[in-house]
Structure formats: structure tokens, C-alpha cells
Amino acid sequence: MGKVYRSRQLALDKPVVLKVLRQSLLSDERTVARFQREAKAASRLNHPNSISILDFGQADDGALFIAMEFVPGQDLHQLLNREWPLAEGRVIRIVSQVLSALSDAHGAGVIHRDLKPENIMVEQRRNDTDFVKVLDFGIAKITDSSGEDGPALTRAGFVCGTPEYMSPEQARGASVDHRSDLYAVGVLLYQLMTGLLPFESDSAVGFATKHLTEEPPPPSKRRPDARISVGMERLILRALSKDPDDRPANAEAFKAELHALEHRERRRSEPAPRRAAASAAPMSSPVLAPLPRRGTGGSHLATQPGTVRDWDSAEATVRAVPEIIQTTPNPMPSSDHLEESAVSMGQDNPGGLGFFKILTLTLVLAAGALAYYFFFSGNSASTPYSIPENAPVPRKEDARTQGPDFSTPLHSQEIPAQALNVAKSREHEMEGDQQYQRGRLDLAATHYKNAFQLNPKPELSLKLGEVYWQHELPGEALAWWSRHLRDAPSSVARAYIVEQRKSVAGAPVP
């Protein structure tokens, strides 16, 4: 649509980029309007990872131009050709910036619709390597604050964009929203991790048809030699879902999942001593037990009476009796050692303590006799206790409604209808999402469990399974995933859960 020139702004002696509409297109009203829309769309954005518009106008000869900031470096296509394979952590850093730019654009009512490696610049700054700029909003779709589209600049049914990166809805010429951009990000991730596109074709129609009708092969099967984590593969395939509802909800949620993957891989690569030290950190939550961490030889766990050591049944007990965690260099002596100390102390003083022992025993027996006498004299058989006439008769149903069922793991409980509170559950779920994004898995699990007790929807059991899986507690993870599949038999996560079950020895496959 236009030619791009590297130029210099004379007043500031600053390099800029000029995009000039071809003279032959000035008579095409639709093309001129689209060029103006690009300037308008980009000018709405004010984000470090989006290209900045400096000026828009018409030259003396009638040519329309857009002046943009100059971004040194290479585009993502060039980087991919020169430096593939890319480490997963590096891919996450690059794509996270793309998603940040998209989040800002979508919030401003701008949908890019033409994301591809050539439209993403990667700059190597002194203190910020792989700094990303998203370019070219030439076919961007702009919506107003009410969600309504602006004036149509494409014919009905006309397909715009790059076929290799088109979402299915874009390929069929249907209306698109922000999730179409997220599909393109899924294609980018696939390409960055494998060096290949999810589909291959010799024509634009062939690409569009495959995006519409075929499921992309798992990246690890297309490129077995590439180092792709299970979580990354799962996220890529979800982003490439045909149904927009099955993709990440928005750019921020997509980015949060990428950061969680990075956190998980970083934890796995940590040396054992660091992970052991992390496991000794105190747990907190008076309402629900956070995710249990594995104990180490240097930690001594002293529990109050009534608590249990078995994590499978400890969940309810921790609610009632907080667990005390002491990290001490010397464990507390056992009861046998204490008895030996008492005996030895008595033997060291055979004459000094004997008299006081006898006197103390005599006083205790006397007090017991007096208590026995007064108790039974005041509660003789002639005045037996009787149940009041109007006392309610307890029913079996009361036992189920008086409070939480601490005898059954939460993932196996049926939450009574009178305990439901959807609004409060949503608050806990959102807080859990925030803690998950920060990598605080313990607190995320706590809030997800609180949310589940108030509204046991399948999404929460799926999230809890993933949190426990990342926390390297596969038994608890599989239990929550089993609950998820019980409540949502046709879940799109079934294939992923089945795959994870296979990796755990002895786990049944649904």
C-alpha cells in the first residue's frame, strides 16, 4: 500500500521512518481511508512496545505520509532465520512484549489483524536485550468504546491479513475480535519454538483452508529435536483453537500463562539446596491449607495434637489446628530421652526428692477423694439427668449442613447449595489468578480452594490441578483433574490431562 523510507527529522536531527502512500493509489478512496486509519490506530497507542507515530499529513505534491519513530535492529523473521533454535525463556520474553503491546492496543479498541514476524522489530539495547516493537497497523480494526466497529473499509467477505497467520474466523471473512490476534500469537509461538509454521501450503487459499479445517500437529512431533516443554506445547495448541472461546481470554491472561511457564522451568533448573530452602518457608492461611511443600532433613515439623502428617488427609485438619513449622539445627528430644533424663535426675538425688514425692502424692489422693464425694453426693441416682421435653431431635441432615466436611478431601466433596456464593468465589478466583501470575503457587492454591468451596465450577478444579502439578505434587494434581473431568467430561483439557496421567506411574487413564 505504501513505500517506507528511512529519513531524518531536520529540526531534531533525528532518524525517523516515513511511510508514503503510492501516487497511483491516491485516487482510491478506500485505500486513502485505510492509510488514514493506520495513522489513527497507531496514534491511539502509547506503549513502549508499540511503534510511535510522530506526524501524519500531506506533502506539497499531494502524497500522504506517516512519520514514525525509527527502530534499529532486525525484525523477528530475520532473527528467526539467523538464530534459531531459540531458548524457551527467550521466546517467552519476546512474545510477552508482543502481548503487552496487544493488551494496550485492545484496551484502546484497536485490533491488529496482521501480526507476523515481519511486523515485529527486535532491538538490542544496552541494558535491555530483545526489546520488541510491534509495527504496521495498516489493516487494523478500530472499535469505539461501546464495542461497535468503525466505518467498514473492507468489502463484506473480503479476507485481509497474511494467510500463514490468519485465525479461522479471519480466514472465512467473519467478524473478528481481540482473540484473532491471540491466534496469530499462537502461530508466532509455534514458529519460534519449532522454526516451522503449523501448516504448510503453496497458496494463500491452501493456508486459509488448513486454518479452517485442520488441527495443528503438536510442535514436539513436528520438530522432535526442539526443546519444547509440555506446558508450552499445551499453551500453543490452546492458542490455536478453532473456537475463540477456547483460547486465552485476553492478552494479559496469555502473558500470565507464559510467565507461569517461565517460573516453573526456572524452579526446575534451580539447584537442590535452593529448592530445599524454599520448602522450609512458613505456610500461612487460617482458612485453608496452602500447598504443602516437601520437607527436608534439616527441618523439624512439630505438630499440635490433632494434626496429621499425611498430606492426603491433612487438608481439613490444618483448617482447625494451624501447623507449627520450626526450622532448628537440633531436633527436639524424643519422649524416651525425656524419661531417661527424669529418671537420672531422680537417681542423682535419692534423699532430697523422696519426701516431697510422697507428700505430693498424698495431697493429690486426698483432693481426688474429696472431689469424688462432693460430686456423687450432689448427683445421686435419685435425680438422674433427663432430656427437656422440647429439645429438638438431631437429624442426619444436620450433620451435613453444620459446616465443612473435614473428613473428605475437598476435591471429593459435594458443596451444598446453601453454601454457594458466586460473587465471593469470583473474588477469590481473581486473587488466585494474580498470585499465580506472580509465581506464588501456595497462595494461588489457597484462594482457588476458597473459591471452589463457594462455587465448585470445573475451571477451578482444572486450575488447582495445574497449580499442584507445577508444585510437583502429581497425586494431588491428578485428584483435582479427575474432579474436573467428572464435572466437565467433554473438557478440551482432557487430552492434556490424559497425557500427564501417563507420565505418572500407576495413575489410571480415564
TrEMBL record:
Tell me any Pfam family this protein matches: TPR_11
Q: Which InterPro entries match?
A: Kinase-like_dom_sf (IPR011009), Prot_kinase_dom (IPR000719), Ser/Thr_kinase_AS (IPR008271), TPR-like_helical_dom_sf (IPR011990)
Alphabetized GO MF terms: ATP binding; protein serine/threonine kinase activity
UniProt keyword terms in alphabetical order: ATP-binding, Kinase, Membrane, Nucleotide-binding, Serine/threonine-protein kinase, Transferase, Transmembrane, Transmembrane helix
Bias type Low complexity, positions: 274-286
UniProt feature, compositional bias: Basic and acidic residues: 261-273
Per the UniProt entry, the Enzyme Commission number(s) are 2.7.11.1
- Keyword Transferase on this protein? yes
**Transmembrane ranges?**
354-375
Residue ranges annotated as coiled coil are none
**What is this protein called in UniProt?**
non-specific serine/threonine protein kinase
